[in-house]
Amino acid sequence: MEQLKPPGALNLEGNLSENWKEWVQGFELYMTASGIEEKSGKVQVATFLHVAGIEARRVYNTFTIPEGDKEKLDVLKTKFYEYCEPRKNLTYLRHLFFTRSQGVNKTIDSFVTDLKNKAKNCDFNELTDSLIRDRIVCGIRDEGTRVRLLRETDLPLTKAVDFCRAQEISSAQVSMLKNPQADEASVHTVHKQSGPRRKRYGNKKTKQPQHQPNNKQPQARQNKLLLVDCRNCGHEHVRNSVVCPAFGKECHTCGRMNHFANLCRSGNNSHNNARQKKLHTVGCDESYSEDLFLGTISSTGARDNEWFETLQFGDQFVKFKLDTGADANVIPKRVMD
User: Per-residue pLDDT tens for 249-266?
Assistant: First the structure.
């Protein structure tokens, strides 16, 4: 047991009562595992003072211990207990308990364990279980679970914990049923093409080493079959109208919803041409490696559900639409001047 590492020095700052309880527990485990508890009292006391550190030894020098008790470990531990315990700030410890909440990544079991450890130092006595239950109801992360717990008129601690644990497991299972491939890494990609640029939405699979079998090929083939060339937006995406970029958009040619004007099948292109504005100049920056294709530039009246903001450029105020999601924005030359 020569490689057994003892606990660190006793921290005599902050919450002394909590620091002492944690340290003496670690020290007793070290004494048992190392076999020192089988040795003489003089060796045990020396080990205690050595492991506790220089600050603890300075406190030890202030104790009044009879000569016959200086080699008794229990007497030494009692002296340090009396030194640390009266300095327990009960108000602060209870504040830590009552403000405890379940973190974003903390499970219900770890949350309950944390509350029970905090409650040990709060002297709640017979109210311990009921106050832990109340803190679970108030501090749990899921709002739906909190509502269900508040409906219960008779809710013991064990029932509250079991219900929260069952709710946590079922939520995880539902999430897996909705998205069984959630653990697969995927990113949206933009593929280059000659001519007009089109965004291709799909899953970018991590390239497999040639010496390893690619077990995801059947799944990749299935995902490829789900992609379609959309006639409403001109992009390639899964067969689902919700993910289509044109979904919810109004056509500037026919006025109907859910397709772009450049793919309008009504044949009324004259209406679209009438709305096009003349550009003063269209320049190309040779230093920039990417080209951007502008298919249509049109003017539409602002609708009530659109969000605009007026910004000041020098002494001129210009009205902008916020967060359009476009790859590029075009403004009149008179605004630039």
Answer: 888 888 888 888 888 877
Q: Per the domain annotation, does 310 fall within a domain?
A: no
Q: Among 146, 178, 210, where does a domain finish?
A: 178
Asked if residue 186 belongs to a domain, the reply is no
In a domain, 28, yes or no: yes
The 3 state secondary structure assigned to the chain is: CCCCCCCCCCCCCCCHHHHHHHHHHHHHHHHHHHCHHHCCHHHHHHHHHHHHCHHHHHHHCCCCCCHHHCCCHHHHHHHHHHHHHHHCCHHHHHHHHHCCCCCCCCCHHHHHHHHHHHHCCCCCHHHHHHHHHHHHHHHCCCHHHHHHHHHCCCCCHHHHHHHHHHHHHHHHHHHHHHCCCCCCCCCCCCCCCCCCCCCECCCCCCCCCCCCCCCCHHHHHHHHHHEEECCCCCCEEECCHHHCCCCCCECCCCCCECCCHHHCCCCCHHHHHHHECCCCCCCCCCCCCCCCCCCCCECCCCCCCCCEEEEEECCEEEEEECCCCCCCCCCCHHHHC
For residue 266, tell me if it sits in a domain: no
pTM above 0.70, yes or no: no
Residues spanned by the domain of 23: 16-87
